[in-house]
Amino acid sequence: MADERPVLGRFPRPARIAGRLALCAFALLYVLPFLIQLATSLKTDPDAAAHPMTLFPGNPTVAAYRRLFGAGGGVESVPFLRWLGNSAFVTVAVTSGRVLFDSMAGYALARLPFAGRRTLFVFLLSAMSVPPVVLLIPKFLVLKSFGMFDSYSGMITPLLVDAGGVFIMKQFFESLPREIEEAARIDGAGVPRIFWSVVLPMSKAPLITLTVLSFQGSWNEFTHFLVSTQSSRYDTLTTGLAHFVSGGLGGGTQYPLKLAAALLSTLPVAALFFCFQRYFVRGSNAGSVKE
Amino acid sequence: MAGSGLLGTPAAAGPRRSAAVTRRRPVRDRIRQGAWGWLFVTPMVLVLGLFMALPILMALWVSLLHWDGQSNPFTGHADFVGLGNYRDLISSDGLSRTLFATSLRNTAYYVLLTVPAQTVLALGLAIVVNQRMMRGRGVARTVFYFPSVTSSIAVSTVFLFLFQGSGSVNRMLSWIGVKGPNWFADPRGVVWLVLGDLGFTDPDHPGGPLARHGVLGLSWADWFSGPSVAMCTLILLSVWTTSGTFMLIFLAALQGIPRSLEEAAALDGVNRRQLLRHVTLPALRPVVFLVLTLGLIATWQVFDQVYVMGKGAPGNTTLTPAYLSYSSGFDNADYGHGAAIAFVLLAIILPLAGLQRWVLRERGGRGRRLRRGGRGPLRAPREEVGARG
């Protein structure tokens, strides 16, 4: 740990207190929207419309959550469980694919000498600079021609490899000492065995980073699902919520329900974030930026 | 993952060493390794090739067609229109061109306001949170970073509620005696709004004579209107969600500044402002550039928020090229037109990505320092961000 003493003296006390207050006020701006979201999800529709700022609802109700889980009692409910199931299924499939394929490709690019490796690396770098929104119509086109439009395979397959992830893994494998792999090779281990039993066990940290980033990426993915599906039975939390919110532009209607759905859809990533925060940090320092 | 900045450490040392080692190995072993190498990259080549390279080529062809998404566009029956779709966007007078120009104008203001704001805010937050003696800085980091990891759709939903006409934001504004606008329904540009309030322009005829002439089918008054009130909410949302990510990039760089440098300056008797201006900021210059280009690349692509928060309404003032491309295809069944918009957008973004690569490569000396501090896509910043503080 580096020297913790500050280089310059501390601020005078009043300045410190003022700075601290300003920072707290600012932090409040980042927290308040989530608090309001939570509070509103526990209100009734009229209450939410009349008191948008109260953090402690007068008559808290879980009606919104009951409706999301299909216990609305006569009221038309939102297919939230279907969205949740689709999101979970797609996320698990995409995350496992990415962890496996990204590390395989990263290992090959870092260690295995094969013809065309240089070219492939340039290809990888170019793939990383293609802006995703430019691919909206092109992807639809390809999925349609392959007969994969509006299916789980069309939702999952194109996301199975992520250029940024391959890059992260390649960088990591290059930083590993070669000697251990050489020793394993002399002992007669082949490439797959070295990769699986020697290299991967040494790569826990980047594998966790990759898992966390892939989970977050596919759970929050929106545009790809938007262009690869059409029927509502393939709606995920993101597309389902987006259709629900943008379709029912009826002013203040059903906000508790919408905010409850948004809140629940945030929870898994939030939980992951609080458990694995430092891996998120590594990922963001790799230059990936969410917009 | 749009554009990756801290690259530039390709296999410089790797291959040379590997050549020396492999020479000693039998040829058969090498061939076997090469075969495994190809096998290992096959999934990547297939997925990126089929769902990234191929789509681009196909879309390039479709952008030359008039295609409604139904028939097969790769047969002789396709309605080939040449560069017609591009002409509609750029040179022929008409609704498409006006819409496209509007979307460019909206996004230009969005970029112009979002990028500097998020960069300055992120830098400020990083410097504050990096204070060594501050209590609770771990919590502060978590708080500022959290919005960045949530789904854009979920936070857009929250903002939609906050900025309603009778929503939380306007309620808060009313506490200090300000009557907030009806955010999402207000297409007025803020430039004319402010000038009108100050009495410089006639609020009923904003822009005055500028409204009579224009370029690309949009009058000068429209070009100079500034972002609409509705667009301002998107800008706020974007600054709010991205500043945390960029703060972390700045934090890693701040922690990469050699302590000896700061101590030497302190011995010379600099004060805090001088230290910031003459030591810290110069050391951060490459990272500032990185953040600026990452921001530029990302903001030109804004889509999700537009989809949730109004789909271009009110009065097309939140329309962006990305959304226009999507809706021309999926709502108006004019995929050729949508593909053409996508390529014009690509032509705007690719030079930005290229610029980023080029500058990070050119500044060899500085780049190296940057890499030492932040190279590590996998090397955690010296201090881990943790809720534990």
TrEMBL record, chain A:
The keyword Transport applies. The chain crosses the membrane at residues 21-39, 83-101, 121-143, 259-281. CDD domains: TM_PBP2 (cd06261). Belongs to the binding-protein-dependent transport system permease family. Pfam families: BPD_transp_1. One of its GO terms (cellular component) is plasma membrane. Its main location: membrane. This is Carbohydrate ABC transporter membrane protein 2, CUT1 family. It is a multi-pass membrane protein. Keywords: Cell membrane, Membrane, Transmembrane, Transmembrane helix, Transport. It comes from the Bacteria. The keyword Transmembrane applies. PANTHER family: ABC TRANSPORTER PERMEASE PROTEIN MG189-RELATED, ABC TRANSPORTER PERMEASE PROTEIN MG189-RELATED-RELATED. One of its GO terms (biological process) is transmembrane transport.
From TrEMBL, chain B:
Residues 104-356 form the ABC transmembrane type-1 domain. InterPro entries: ABC_transporter_permease, MetI-like, MetI-like_sf. It is a multi-pass membrane protein. Keywords: Cell membrane, Membrane, Sugar transport, Transmembrane, Transmembrane helix, Transport. GO terms for biological process: transmembrane transport. Residues 1-21, 367-389 are annotated as: Disordered. GO terms for cellular component: plasma membrane. Residues 380-389 have a biased composition (Basic and acidic residues). Pfam families: BPD_transp_1. It is found in: Cell membrane. The chain crosses the membrane at residues 35-62, 108-130, 142-163, 228-254, 283-303, 335-360. Its main location: membrane. Coiled coil: none annotated. Belongs to the binding-protein-dependent transport system permease family. PANTHER family: ABC TRANSPORTER PERMEASE PROTEIN (PTHR30193), INNER MEMBRANE ABC TRANSPORTER PERMEASE PROTEIN YCJO (PTHR30193:SF37). This is Multiple sugar transport system permease protein.
